[in-house]
Amino acid sequence: MADISFEIKNHIKSYKNWPNEGDIFRDLTDIYRHSEITQKCVNRLYERYINSNLTHIAVLEARAFILGSMLAARLNLPLILIRKPHKMAGELLHSQNDSHTRALQMHKNACNEQDNVLIFDDLIAAGKSTMGAINLINQTGANIFEVACLVCLPDLKGVQNIGTLNVPVFNLCAYEGI
Fold first, then answer.
1. Mean pLDDT in the chain?
2. Measuring CA to CA, which residue among 149, 128, 130, 158 is closest to residue 8?
3. The domain containing residue 109 runs over which residues?
4. What local confidence, expressed as pLDDT, does residue 99 receive?
5. CATH number, position 67
6. How many domains are contained in the chain?
7. What is the DSSP letter of 83?
């Protein structure tokens, strides 16, 4: 499996002091504007999961919907959409909203205790959204195979925070430096 982290880093734009003074925003949009890098990312994820026993891929709103749906289609797996509150109708599960977890929701019947779910997000920073997704999948009784992301920001300790829940994390690129 080829390492594509250098190519990914070359397509990340950094904006200092956005959205707040002192922040550095890592914009992944350029990755999606170049179909060859987008396809390489999907191919790398496909190679990792083709021989796994996954039954579902859960994706977090909104950019993760892009690569996550491409991967799910390629693996011929159902996609679970995890969204912010008030964006879905029907019977829903809700994640807790506290200092460690972002409030999210998903359909109650999206998966069950017989399923093996990959959670995918485009970027893991502090990990609050991912931890909210873990909370939702845990409510169904499904097994979480792993969390995968395109990019993680190790300095913000999201992967470390997720690790406290005993869920492994895989990333295509670790972008150091706050």
1. 95
2. 149
3. 53-174
4. 77
5. 3.40.50.2020
6. 1
7. B
